[in-house]
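User: As part of a screening pipeline, I want to sanity-check one entry by hand. Below is the sequence and the SMILES for zinc ion. Please return the complex as structure tokens so I can compare it with the automated output.
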Amino acid sequence: MRSAVRALGRGLLKRCPRCGHGRLFRRYFGLVPRCPGCGLRFEREEGYWVGAMIVNIAVTELTFGIVLVAGILLWWPDVPWAALTVVAVAVNAIVPVVFYPWSKTIWMALDVLLHRMDVRDKDAAGDGHAGPRVFDRKTIRP
Ligand SMILES: [Zn+2]
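Assistant: Here is the complex for your manual check:
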């Protein structure tokens, strides 16, 4: 439980979920391929970032729902629907862009927790394989 809280906390701080190292983004949208601290390869397989997209959409729609319900409750019964619609559209346009880096680090934290990379497979986490190795890649590299 403590490792889950720690990994998710690191994700919320845009840090590596395994070692806690920062500076994972070169630019706002530019994630480095490997952790500078522990060497964890972030994009572990093709389609890996679909999980980050799901995290981003979930946070966006949760924010949208909170804003919509708060607006309705705040102005009930004379709800300014046009203004609330503009705000709701703005939330759906702005939140995914602003939340983008956190969606990746939070997804990486969830992935580390799901694959238990903090406990085992430390070596495998660096080369993108979660399962047992069939061959040693170091021996075929020049
Ligand atoms: Zn790391």
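Points to compare against the pipeline: The CA atoms of residues 124 and 134 lie 11 Å apart. Residues 2-134 form one domain.
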